[in-house]
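User: quick one
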Amino acid sequence: MSTDSLDPVIHAPARLRIVATLAALPDGDALSFTRLQDILELTPGNLITHLRKLEDAGYLSSETTGNGRASRTSIALTGDGREALDAYTSALRELLDGL
Amino acid sequence: MNDTQGTEPRRGRAVYAAVAVAIAVSVKIYRRATAGVSGPSLRQQRVEGVAILISYLGSPLIQGAMKHYGASNAIVYGVIPAAVPLIIVGTTVVGTAASNGNWPQCGAALAAVTGGVVALFVGPSGAWLAAGIGLFVAVVGYAVATSRRAAPIVAGHA
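Assistant: Done. Structure below.
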């Protein structure tokens, strides 16, 4: 078992925290961008960058409702994202078992 | 006898005040925990919350009926407030938890119901002890089950 088996998209600390936070929600539920930012204490720009990478990988979906100042963006983990996190934690567990 | 009749209603009012404070604190914590969350499970939880609140009304209704038909203060203010909420609210939670497949919550609610049933038959003082033990088992059991479910990596190395 090597570190190559760890999904590089999830492996970055900030993205791992994002995915782990969203995985705590039941299937189908979403978290608002501002709440996610509060929990993770990331700057908006930093959070957007990581969210975009996760969304490009198909691990997240986002939905924006409303316009202007009243707009609200909700982010949810997709089925692929949940599977990727499960695979990541399994790989990490196997890696740690070898210590 | 007169002393008992004088203190039991006061104890009952203190219980209701404590329950009101507990509900207010619970609502505040729940709102804080679910801030920014949206989706089907949250809507379902709200419906379940309303069902639980409505079921809680059963206790004062039964108290009122028993008082009306001449039951003693020891029963109306000693046994019923300790036992009936656990039974009525507990069975409601058993139903909602079972329908969601949430077996830890279902087990915890069953423990609370059991405490309530025992409380019915052990007298005014024992009722609160039985209710307290039932709630203790329910809350601690649910907390243990939840913590094990929430930390799979730690559990894997335990």
